[in-house]
Every structure is written in structure tokens, then in C-alpha cells.
Amino acid sequence: MKKSAATSALIVLAVINTVSCAGDIAHFSYDPPEGWEVQDRPDMGMNYRVWMTTPTDGFAPNITIVEADFAGSNEEFVRINTPNMTKALPPLDGISRQEFVSDSELKAIKLTWTTEVFSKFLSQSVFVFEKGNRKFVVTATTLEKDADALGPIIEKSMKTATIN
């Protein structure tokens, strides 16, 4: 069975071995981009809540969240899990990394890379937030050609992130 690009993007998140949803997960919350809608997706035996917007060229830009329990720092979590996150969707030109801070002073590590899935070039932006041993991996996936337009919209949404 041929997988869609959105399903393939979710494979990366499944590697972290948790259940995900978007908008509000285990005390992690953010304001999704205006006009995006939530869809429940039972993929690969796991239930996901995915925030999506109107598809273009056969791909719906989306945001998913995975919560993981990890006893180390956010830095260690990212170092150990980056190979897992990029295994299903390998970077074409390397990974960009930067520090990110929400309006509530919540710190995250942001990883960005371009990948190719079924002849579509995709931009992956992964924000890794933490509170103690809880890590929240937010993955936003867009067509690479739409990344300049949608990137600021996604970042604005992530600026509203809080963990209670």
C-alpha cells in the first residue's frame, strides 16, 4: 500500500514511541494557525490529531505533536533522537538548528530540513519543548515551495506555546 506524504511524515514521530495530538496535549497548548482544522488520523496503529490546512499540489501542510518521557536534558534528547527523526525523512542538504523561545519564555530547540517524499520536496520544522522529563516534539510539515509563506505563520503559532 502506497503511503501519503502526510502519513510518511507521521512515521518520523512514531519512532519516539508516544501518542500525539495537536492544539492541547497533556498540558502542552498552543494556538493553531488561523483557519487550520484538526483531523483525527488513525495511522500505523496509533491515533493522531493533526492540524491541517488546505492542500496544495496534493499535500496538506500539517502540525503534529508527540509527547515523550526522557530523563535527560532537551539538548541530550535532540542529540539522541535527531537520527530517529530524520531516518524516515532524511535531510537533502543538512539540518538547520536554532534556539526558539515562546512568548511565555518556554525554550525549545528548532530543527529544520528539506526532504523528498514521493517526488514532493517537503520542509520539516521540528520544535522540541521541555518541562522536566517531558519533551514535546512539534513537527510542522509543508511543501518546500510554501515554506517561506507558511514558516512565519507556524512560528507565530509556536510563539503561543505553553506547558502547565
What does this structure look like?
With 164 residues, the protein is an alpha+beta fold. It has a single domain (5-163), classed as Mog1/PsbP, alpha/beta/alpha sandwich (Protein Transport Mog1p, Chain A, 3-Layer(aba) Sandwich). Helices cover 22% and strands 41% of the residues. The protein has three helices and ten strands; from the N terminus they run αβββββαββββαβ. It has a seven-stranded antiparallel sheet, sandwiched between helices. It is globular. The termini are far apart. The relative contact order is 0.21. The model is unreliable at 1-24 (pLDDT under 50).
Shape: globular
- Give the C-alpha Rg: 14 Å
Give the number of DSSP strands: 10
Q: Helix content range of the residues, please?
A: 10-25%
In N-to-C order, the SSE pattern is HEEEEEHEEEEHE
Q: DSSP strand (E) fraction?
A: 35-45%
Poorly predicted residue ranges:
1-24
- CATH A-level architecture: 3-Layer(aba) Sandwich
Question: What summary fits the major beta sheet?
Answer: 7 strands, antiparallel
According to CATH, the homologous superfamily is Mog1/PsbP, alpha/beta/alpha sandwich
Q: What is the fold's blueprint, element by element?
A:
Layout: H1 5-14, E1 24-25, E2 28-29, E3 37-43, E4 46-52, E5 62-69, H2 74-87, E6 96-101, E7 107-117, E8 120-131, E9 134-143, H3 147-158, E10 162-163
Antiparallel strand pairs: 1-2, 2-10, 3-4, 4-5, 5-9, 6-7, 7-8, 8-9
